[in-house]
């Protein structure tokens, strides 16, 4: 009996030691990787990697058809990028609650095009879910907002973790693709901006730090500020505050990227760095 218990105790101790050593090795690997990635981020201003999935999710045939036929950005991607993009759209749809208002049905078209917009903006991110959004409300037309007692085409409410769109105006943003007005991009840019302030993942950190670099660049460069305003390239609404400025920059980044890059290469470069994506090259 004594020998039996001794053997059992010895076996248990060996198991505990083995588990402890495995856990220690995992911790060493994790913190080692974090240090390597931190050095990489500081040097290159981008994550060490963006895409790693154990299994790629797929959209159903109708959803895939909507993505292929109605979302131009998707057609510009290579085969591997398309699979990653489809996976992220499927995951975004699954992660968020879509709610139609005033009789609007939540069709595959509505869910896919809204989700694809979010995924497009975060395609250079590792974490693409935008944690400050739980619910997506969609109205047929401009809606009355109880937040500021006015009619809106779209809004982002971080307190309620919700983003709201007028479907009519959301679609107009893609029907006219080069007028630098895109409701979906604008509102998701607000959400990504505030999410980057709240979160500490690598992509949020790069986004936040890059925007700070941009504001410092503009603060210290009067000639660039004067050129920016005199050009009238960006609409006047961009100068309301820093949040609207960023949202408008992101709209222009996707709507007229080559003109943006040509007129203001330093500003374009900072937006590219924020999003870890060079849209002008596609």
Automatic annotation (TrEMBL):
<keyword id="KW-0812">Transmembrane</keyword>
<dbReference type="InterPro" id="IPR024079">
    <property type="entry name" value="MetalloPept_cat_dom_sf"/>
</dbReference>
<feature type="transmembrane region" description="Helical">
    <location>
        <begin position="12"/>
        <end position="33"/>
    </location>
</feature>
<keyword id="KW-0472">Membrane</keyword>
<dbReference type="Pfam" id="PF06167">
    <property type="entry name" value="Peptidase_M90"/>
</dbReference>
<dbReference type="GO" id="GO:0004177">
    <property type="term" value="F:aminopeptidase activity"/>
</dbReference>
<dbReference type="GO" id="GO:0005829">
    <property type="term" value="C:cytosol"/>
</dbReference>
<keyword id="KW-1133">Transmembrane helix</keyword>
<dbReference type="GO" id="GO:0008237">
    <property type="term" value="F:metallopeptidase activity"/>
</dbReference>
<protein>
    <submittedName>
        <fullName>Zinc-dependent peptidase</fullName>
    </submittedName>
</protein>
<dbReference type="InterPro" id="IPR010384">
    <property type="entry name" value="MtfA_fam"/>
</dbReference>
